[in-house]
Structure formats: C-alpha cells, structure tokens
C-alpha cells in the first residue's frame, strides 16, 4: 500500500515552478544570488515533500535541460547526505523507487547523477534497509537495453568503491557471493565501458583478499589476460591496476605467468594513452618490493631500461605544464598554493663518529626525501602526463639501481652515452635525469666514468634550457660525495662556482634546484668549504633580495645547512656583517602567526649555534620573541582546553621551533645565556612543555633542558626535583627521539649535580639498562644511553656499580666508534670508577672493555692513567700465565695498541 502512495505522488504546478526558478538562479555566477538561493534551499528543506520535487525534476521532467535536472539531483544528494534519517518514510520510498526506475536514463549525465544518488543513499547505512537495491541492479545488468545495463554498472561500481566491507558482511548475507561471479561474466562484454566497469568493480576486492574472489582467482586471471590487448584505454588501465594489486596479494598465482606479464607491462609502460603508461610504471615499483624481482626482471633488462629512459623524456604537454618554455620568471610572484607545506624536524642530540664528517642521524623517524626538486608534492600539482616521467625516476632510482646495482650498467651506459650528448634538449635532459636516478645504487660502477661525466655536467649547468639546468643541479648533487673526495681544483671549485651562479639564475625552478643541490654539497663538504665562505655568503645574501616567497624558504635551509656544516668558522665579523642583517630584517617583518617563521627559526638556530659569541648582539630580541612564542602557544592551548568552542587549538609547531632556537642560543652562547634566562620565565614554561602530550614538544623541551644545564645550571638546579621524574617517565624507546633527548639531558644534569644526583639514580637507572640491552634500540639512542649510564657512574659510582655486569658488554660496544670528546671522557671516567667499586662486574666481558679503551685516539693523561691502572691491576690479579692466555685471544691490532699504549 505504502509503495502505491509513494508512486501516486504528483507535484503541484506552483511548487515545481518555484523550484525550477531556484535551480536556474543557482547557476548564476553572482555570489549574492547564490547566497540567496542557498538560504531559500535551507528554508524549503523544512517541507517534507521538497525532496520529492527534486527527484521529480531529475527523473521525470524531460522538458528541462539536462544540467538543470542534474543539479536538482545533486542538491538532493546533499540533502540525503545531511538529513536522510529525517525523511518521512513515504518520501524515502518515492526517492528510492524513482532512482531504480531511472538507472537506465538515456542521458549519460542524468544516469550518472542517479548513480551518485543511489550510492549516497546506500552509503548512509541504507544497504541493509533497501533490500531490493542490489538484486534489482544485478538483474538490470542482464537488460537488453544497453543504457540500463551501463547505468546499473555505474551505480554498482560506486557502491563497490564506497561500501566494499559491507558487501562482504554476514549482515547482508554476503551479496559478493553473487556479485563477483556476475561481474566476471561481463569481462568479455561487447561494450568497452561495461568491460571497464566490470574490472573496476572486482578490483575493489583484491587488496582485502575477499574470500569469494580468491575462490574465483583463476577465472579472474584468465579473463584479465584475455583483455590484455583491449583497444579501450580505460580497460587496459584497470587491467594494469589489477595486476599491480595481485603482485602484492597473490604472487603465487602470477609467478607461472610472470614472463608474459612483464612483456605485457613493457608494452603498457609505452602505451599511447598516458594514464595507462602511468599504471604500467606502478607495476615496476610494486615488483621491486617482491623477493622475486631480480630473477624475474634480469632477462628483460635490455628491453626495460631503454623503455624507462625513453619514458623520462618530457612530452610537449609536459613542457607546457612545467612552464619549460618559460626561461625567465624570477619576477613573477609565487602563488601561495604552489608552496610546499613544511614540516619542522625537531632537534635530536647525537654523537659524532670516527669515520664521518657529520653527525650520525641514521635514526630519522620521518623518512622524508630531501630531494626537493623531485618531491611528490611538487609533482602533485602537475598533470598526469608529467607524472609519467617522474614516476619512472623512482623506478630506475630505487628499484633497478638498488636491486641490480652495477649489473645495470652494461645495458644502461650505451643508452646514457647516446642520450646525454644528444642535440635534442628533451632527450639530453632525460639522460641527465637517468644518470642522477642511478647514483645511489650504481655508485661503485659509475666511479670510473665520473672524471669525464662530472665536468660535462658542470658545463650543462649553463645550458640555455632551464629544465636542463635544473635537472643537472639535482644530478650533480647525487654525486657530490665523490666530488668532495677529489682534488678541489679539479671538481669542487668549478662545481661550486657554477652552482652559485645557478642560485642566482633568472628561472625560479633552477634557483630552487640549485639551492637544494648546494645544501647537499654543504652537508658532504663540511669544513672543506671554509676557504670559500666569503664567496658563498655573498651569493646567498644576494639571493635574499632576488627570490620570491617559495625559494626564500629553501634559501633559509641552505644557509642553516651551511652553518651546521662549517660551525664556528662562520664566526668572523665580515661574515656576520654579511649574513645577519637580511636574516634579522626578515625576522622583524614576520608576524608571530606566520608559518614562514618555521624555516627562519630553524635557520637562525643553526646560525646561532655556529656563531657562538658572534651572535651576542642579536640574542636578546631573538630570545625574548622565542619565549613569547612558547608562552602564547601554551596560553592558547589552555584556552582551547577550557573553551574549545571559543578558542582554536594552537599550532604547536610555533612552540617547537621556538624551543629549538632557544637550544641553539644556549649551545652557541653558553654562559652568556645566564642573564637572559634570569630575566625570563622560561623555566616555568619549560616545565609545562616537558609534560605536553605531543612527542615533538617533549623532544624539543628535553633538548633545551640539556643545553640549559650546560650553559647556566644555576637556573636549572632549583627545578631538578620537578624535572628529573618527568625525564624518567620519558625513557620510553617507543618514542625514539623523545627518549634520546631525555637520556642525554639526564647525563648533562648528572655531570652538573655531582654526588647530589644520588636520590635520582633509582628513578632512571633501570630503564636505561633495559634500553641499552634491547636489540632493537637504534644506534644514536644506544650511544646516548651508554654515555648517560657512564656519567651516572662517574658521579654516583656506589649506586650504579652493582649493575655493572648487566650493561658492560653493550656499553663497550656502543661507545667504541664515537670520536674522542667531553661526553665520551666523562662516561669512561664513570666506567673506571665503577670497575674500582665492583671489579667482578667486568671480568666476564673484559675483552670488550679492552676493545672500547683501544678506541681512544688521545685520552687525557689522567684518564689514560686510570686505564693503565685497571689493566695492570687485572694482569696482577690473574697472574702472568693467565694474562698471556687471555691476550692471545685478542685480535692482533688490538693487542698491539694495548701493548704500545698501556704496556700490557
């Protein structure tokens, strides 16, 4: 009865006219008219049968133009989304029945709108209440009317995308058991659109390994292979998508066909349709993650490599989209939406190692790629075509070079020779890109060719095409480690000279690539750059007045990296006079809520640390503003917690970067911080920050606490009883960087507190011993934990020595590779004191202690004497014969060092 009532509904002439007028007005470009329409629509929503009018216009009013009818359906869809549960039952029934009767509307626009409406109703939980929907759509697939079949498939595809899980649930009696076999029948339909819908529907259930699909997997594969050379690009695209997902889910079923699949994907990667070619590229990326990659691909390399290198060449449309035909654009202001969102990387304390120039940072938790010029974000703004050449880059870079390494080169080198020196600039550019992509994986094999290639690439930095200049910057940065290891005059100086010119290039893309490449070179070269500092700074400072917004942010990074790399060598008056005025000018212009403060504060933090006392003239206003940023953020956070409806939650990144800059000041200015801290409330603010729920805030707080303990302990001391328990609670290696900085701060505090640290040892020692014995603890955290345990033992040997045997072996192993420095010195003094209290604790692992002591290049005389006494004490204790037997186990170099340095 209810259904007949619903079907009997008819619109009134007046109401229909009113709604049609509204629909026409809503298409007006005038915003005031649109606002008025919006208001009227909201008023009409109060009338129960308003939605009946909307569905009537969409499905029945054929006298109206299609855009107006479709718009009526889209307004109805929004109403369904917002209020469907409030619709009177007869209205809901009328809409549902009208949708089902109009699935096959001959107009593609109306049919698609009906499909969207059906999906929205289904998504609102109505799949369970609208029991006739799926059987009806399923039945329509067999309709002789093509429009009905296609309309039903369109709706089913959307339902599969939106409600995949529900379709496989017990509650609905698993409709997929019927649907999937049904979809598979349509893989061979005469219409490409239907074939495409059918594969797209099944594809929704591959990754979740839906049981019914797994039961029909062989039929699915057979049908996919049948469609391999389908003439329709949408069908080919869906076939490629399916194969990429099956690699992950059912590799066992693909292995017997792998040769043919690879042949097929070679064709698809060169498909005339760019969307298909893009899906083809995804296949190589997925295959690389599979253990069979090397064996499967090896026979195909001679054909695959040329395809990939050819695919790196820009098409004409790429060049237009990348503005590759625009050579000079430095005067054109940036659009805000083109500026990459920045993520601040909080400060982490780490040790320097014997074998490196820079601080070890192998435990980075963010895994972000620093190659700005090729980052995904930069690509996402581009059209799909540009993505193809960029998608192939990681295939060559991560996949092939890191799977095959040098084995790639016999195939690749002849192609590179042909492309790198080509007359056609697009081909030359693709060769340079390929050369950069393989740098990491094929470095050993490339070394013999670099003495010829690097000078050639340096000349390409002057190419007349901006896209060639920018990609050359990136590729050269990938080989900068090799460059730095060669005689400076041959490679480093010419590279640096040309890169600095490119930093001032008239093209913004080239400026960006050159700045990023120069930052990479700075990290590799470190103090090797000191002789050229004046020249470098003049260029970077000149760029300040030249750069638009986006590149200015990258310039901050290049300056900060330079400061990190050359350290105190930057502290010369002439350099300070060059560098500081433009930085302070930007600092003064930026408001407290401007996110551009992040990169500027990061940059200033590095500069303050490097300049040390040279930063003194600038420190007071910088210090005060940082404290103010922390205070404002904490206040806004409290206001938001108390009245979330009135106050927005703050962006805590402002507080994090401010804390990190304060750390930089404390590290650089050392004792000069005392007066600044005295006249501020930073210790109270720090107490709050240390308890923040966000790990990055705590991480930066503990870094600052450690630096303040070193710089002006008299202000930290009164707070110790509040601070140390919080540090103890944060010795949780789940948050590596938080735990790392808390551990380091405990070590710094203990050195300053001396024997007064005694009451706090029980709060921290057990967790530190657990961390140092955990096999999964990252290297940086192991080293800091070992140093802190050593320092605790240095100031409170009686309290720590009883546990010596529980940590001595990992302790020695952790500290054998780090360079001689103050932290290592105090840690080893601690271990010697603990051995004095508990010599039995080291007996079983004495060989590890010998090895750790031998890692010292130049210990201070009194520390060397402590080592000497321990060795001779042990030798006397065990007797000459036993010592001889013990020392014969030692590796020859270790034995020689102990004999030469300690006479044992």
Task: Provide a concise account of the structure shown.
This protein has 904 residues and is mainly α.
* Helix segment tally: 51
> Can you count the beta strands?
0
Structural class: mainly alpha
Give the overall silhouette.
Answer: globular
How far apart are the first and last residues' alpha carbons, in Å?
104 Å
Describe this structure in words.
With 904 residues, the chain is an all-alpha fold. It contains 51 helices and no strands.
Features:
single chain, 904 residues, mainly alpha, 51 helices, 69% helix, disordered N terminus
List the helices and strands and how they pair.
Elements: H1 2-8, H2 13-25, H3 31-44, H4 50-59, H5 66-83, H6 89-101, H7 108-126, H8 133-140, H9 146-162, H10 164-167, H11 176-185, H12 192-203, H13 211-215, H14 217-226, H15 233-249, H16 251-254, H17 258-268, H18 274-288, H19 293-297, H20 301-311, H21 316-321, H22 376-380, H23 384-404, H24 409-420, H25 425-437, H26 443-460, H27 466-478, H28 480-484, H29 492-503, H30 508-525, H31 533-546, H32 549-566, H33 573-589, H34 597-611, H35 616-642, H36 653-669, H37 673-678, H38 682-689, H39 695-711, H40 713-716, H41 720-729, H42 736-753, H43 761-773, H44 779-795, H45 797-800, H46 804-815, H47 822-837, H48 846-854, H49 861-878, H50 880-888, H51 892-902
Helix pairs in contact: 1-6, 4-5, 4-6, 5-7, 7-9, 8-9, 9-12, 11-12, 12-15, 15-18, 17-18, 18-23, 20-23, 23-25, 24-25, 25-27, 26-27, 27-30, 29-30, 30-32, 31-32, 31-33, 32-34, 33-34, 34-36, 35-36, 35-38, 36-39, 39-42, 41-42, 42-44, 43-44, 44-46, 44-47, 46-48, 47-49, 49-50
